[in-house]
Amino acid sequence: MSISRKALERRLSAELLKADNDEWLAGIRILPGGVVNGTVVSRVFENVDAADRRVHIERVLRAIDTILRPGFLSLYTPEEADALELEHAHAARDAPSDPAGTWLELASALAQAEARSPQAEPMTSPRVVAFYSYKGGVGRTTAITHTAYELARSGKKVVLVDLDLEAPGLNDVFDLPKSPPVGILEFLYRSRPGMAEEQVPAITDTFCEVRFRSEARGRLFVVPAGKVDSAYIARIASLRVEDILGPNGPWDRFVKQINEQLEPDYVLIDSRTGINDWAAFCLFHAAHEVFVVFFPSRQNVDGLRPLLDGMRLLGLGDRVRLWASMYPARKEGESRAKEYLAELGRVLSTDQSRDETENIYEPGTTSDDDQLLGIPYLEAVALADEIPVIAARTYYSQLVNRIDEMLEEASLVRILDHQGARREILESLPFDVVTAEEMNQERLKKLFHRTSDFDKLLDGPTCLVRGRKGTGKSVLYGIFVKHQDMVKELASPRLDDKRYDFVSGHGEASPKPGPDEFGAWHRLVTERKLTWHALWRAIVLLRLVPLMERKPKEMSDEVWRTARKPTTNAPSRWTREHTRAVEELAVNATDSKYALDALDDAMTRAHREVWLFFDDLDEDFQTDAALRNKALSGLFELLQTSDDQHHKAIRFKVLLREDIWNELTFQNKSHFNGRYIELRWRRTDVLRLALKQALASPRFDDIARKFKPISNLELASEESLVNALEPLWGVRMGKKRSKYVHRWVYERLSDSQGNFFPRAMQHLLIAAKEKELEYLARQGIQAPRDRLIRVDALLQGLKEKASKERVEELKEEYKEIRSFLDSLRELGTSPLANKAIQERWDRCGRPRGIPTKDAITWLQSIGLMSDASRSGEQKIADLYLYGLGLSRMGQ
Question: How far is 710 from 702, CA to CA, in rounded Å?
Answer without folding.
Answer: 12
